[in-house]
Amino acid sequence: MLRFAPSPTGDMHIGNLRVAILNYLVSQQKNDQFLIRMEDTNTQRIIEGKDTEIMMLLEKFALKHDSVFHQSEHLNLYQILALRLLKEKKAFICTCKNEELEETQPYSGHCENLNTEDYDQLKASGEKFVIRIKKPEDNNEIDSFIIVNTDGLPTYNFACAADDMMSNIDFIIRDEKYLDDTPKQMYIKNLLGYENETQYFHLPSIIDKDEISVKWLFQEGFIPDAILNYLILLGNTEAPKEVFTLPEAIEWFDLNSILKSTAKFDMAKLRFINREHLKLMDDKQLSTLFSFADADIGKLAKLYLEECSTVNELKERITSIFTPKDFDTEWGEEMQLISDIIFQAPEYKSFDELTQHIINESGLKNEKLINPLRRLLTGTGTGPELSEIYPLIKSYLLEVAS
């Protein structure tokens, strides 16, 4: 079984999403289960609603899970396991001074004689204490680290190891920043009697990942398929092509093809991939991003993909077409004249027929025709050929030319 274990303490960043995607990919390849675990025992840092937001984001990327739970549901289980280690003399109570009760501080070795006999008495007295794991005799790299804090809550490593054991997680893909935690978690599971082998794969970090949230990418107009495509491609040396879907990636993805060095987030590359996925999108579906349900509007948006690469940029172009035009401009007089002619004209199937009618009625030619006509139909002075745009907006012509 594989798992994704986010902490609902802030926005999901691309590094977290990458871990979720790769765990899901491998679970699909192994035909194994994929579990979501909310690591919410650090109550001081939890932000209400972030767990729901994380689940909604995973749904947007079609990362289906088999089960989900919060670590806060298991607090009694952590207590039971910690007491078991105390009874088996694999852990001990520590009442060192406050500065020594921090998980990151080295342990002085003063309290190893305290054990389960002192547990109830200390709890009743209100004196602060922690529970520490006994240092392995054959491993100088692991200290007598804390597994239960003074508030009775488990430390990250203890809760993580206990849940991986109870869920029988046998393949863990996570960021390399957790590399130093791995020996501690393996040691905890060993003391708890867990004998099943667990494979670990630590992903090289993404430079600047903490500055880029998934929510921000959505706000900037990047679509899920493109973000997913980019994160699978990042650092991958054997991807058969640059643009692909999640089902395609499941067929060929190989963890061992990811470079061991850190990867830098490349916005230009993401923009390219986003543009390519917008091109692949169903025309009618694309139009819904601009509040339409019309394949022609989707085709219209795709005309602008030579100069645009995000939904926001396309929306700006589409909005400009359908926004009432300002006739108080350099070409305003000609625009008003052309608008009046269009409102009186029959419907023409081709752009050439329309322009010939405008020429006949107005006498405008060359730039005195094309410049105001472009601004009237698109709201800007540049863009795709009007002959390509016209067939896609002719059913809206009176609205566009108003």
Automatic annotation (TrEMBL):
<dbReference type="GO" id="GO:0000049">
    <property type="term" value="F:tRNA binding"/>
</dbReference>
<dbReference type="GO" id="GO:0050561">
    <property type="term" value="F:glutamate-tRNA(Gln) ligase activity"/>
</dbReference>
<feature type="domain" description="Glutamyl/glutaminyl-tRNA synthetase class Ib catalytic">
    <location>
        <begin position="3"/>
        <end position="271"/>
    </location>
</feature>
<dbReference type="GO" id="GO:0005524">
    <property type="term" value="F:ATP binding"/>
</dbReference>
<dbReference type="InterPro" id="IPR020751">
    <property type="entry name" value="aa-tRNA-synth_I_codon-bd_sub2"/>
</dbReference>
<dbReference type="InterPro" id="IPR000924">
    <property type="entry name" value="Glu/Gln-tRNA-synth"/>
</dbReference>
<dbReference type="InterPro" id="IPR020061">
    <property type="entry name" value="Glu_tRNA_lig_a-bdl"/>
</dbReference>
<dbReference type="InterPro" id="IPR004527">
    <property type="entry name" value="Glu-tRNA-ligase_bac/mito"/>
</dbReference>
<dbReference type="GO" id="GO:0005829">
    <property type="term" value="C:cytosol"/>
</dbReference>
<dbReference type="Pfam" id="PF19269">
    <property type="entry name" value="Anticodon_2"/>
</dbReference>
<keyword id="KW-0067">ATP-binding</keyword>
<keyword id="KW-0547">Nucleotide-binding</keyword>
<dbReference type="Pfam" id="PF00749">
    <property type="entry name" value="tRNA-synt_1c"/>
</dbReference>
<dbReference type="GO" id="GO:0006424">
    <property type="term" value="P:glutamyl-tRNA aminoacylation"/>
</dbReference>
<dbReference type="InterPro" id="IPR001412">
    <property type="entry name" value="aa-tRNA-synth_I_CS"/>
</dbReference>
<comment type="similarity">
    <text>Belongs to the class-I aminoacyl-tRNA synthetase family. Glutamate--tRNA ligase type 1 subfamily.</text>
</comment>
<protein>
    <submittedName>
        <fullName>Glutamyl-tRNA(Gln) synthetase (EC)</fullName>
        <ecNumber>6.1.1.24</ecNumber>
    </submittedName>
</protein>
<feature type="domain" description="Aminoacyl-tRNA synthetase class I anticodon-binding">
    <location>
        <begin position="292"/>
        <end position="392"/>
    </location>
</feature>
<dbReference type="GO" id="GO:0004818">
    <property type="term" value="F:glutamate-tRNA ligase activity"/>
</dbReference>
<keyword id="KW-0648">Protein biosynthesis</keyword>
<keyword id="KW-0030">Aminoacyl-tRNA synthetase</keyword>
<dbReference type="InterPro" id="IPR008925">
    <property type="entry name" value="aa_tRNA-synth_I_cd-bd_sf"/>
</dbReference>
<dbReference type="InterPro" id="IPR049940">
    <property type="entry name" value="GluQ/Sye"/>
</dbReference>
<keyword id="KW-0963">Cytoplasm</keyword>
<dbReference type="InterPro" id="IPR045462">
    <property type="entry name" value="aa-tRNA-synth_I_cd-bd"/>
</dbReference>
<keyword id="KW-0436">Ligase</keyword>
<dbReference type="InterPro" id="IPR014729">
    <property type="entry name" value="Rossmann-like_a/b/a_fold"/>
</dbReference>
<dbReference type="InterPro" id="IPR020058">
    <property type="entry name" value="Glu/Gln-tRNA-synth_Ib_cat-dom"/>
</dbReference>
